[in-house]
Amino acid sequence: MARKSAGRGLGGWAFLIGVLLAIVLGYIGKIDSTWTWILVVIGLIVGFFNVAERETEPFLMSGAVLIIASAFGGTALNAVASLNNVLQALLLIFVPATVIVAIKHVFNMAKR
Predict the structure, then answer these.
(1) Residue 12: which domain range?
(2) How many domains does the chain have?
(3) Burial of 71: CB neighbours in 10 Å, binned 0-12, 13-18, 19+
(4) C-alpha separations of 30 from 50, 85, 88, 104 in Å
(5) Per-residue pLDDT tens over the stretch 41-58
(6) Whether 84 contacts 78, CB under 8 Å
(7) pTM of the predicted model as reported, rounded to 2 decimal places
(8) Is residue 56 within 8 Å of residue 32, measured between CB atoms?
(9) Phi then psi for 109, rounded to 5 degrees?
(10) Confidence label for 81 from pLDDT (cuts 50, 70 and 90)
């Protein structure tokens, strides 16, 4: 098991809180601009602090699949408003997290 640093703990908690918030807020339909910014900031924290270098490629693959599935799933499931809202809220977390991890990965590849 990987050792945890203070940053990894923060990122782990941010991930858990972000996903729970996305589910709850999406279900009750309360994603206004304030909650949007909170979820985006949580995504940034996850991207900066939760993904170790050895976890980068699996995270990017999983993040890309989740983003694609949430985007297309939200469109396909428009009739189920609460599920559509949850998927949109998950996008608010995973898009910034995936972008940050991808940028970090490119910089790490450039250093080699």
Answers:
(1) 7-111
(2) 1
(3) middle
(4) 26, 9, 12, 32
(5) 999 999 999 888 889 999
(6) yes
(7) 0.85
(8) no
(9) -65, -35
(10) confident
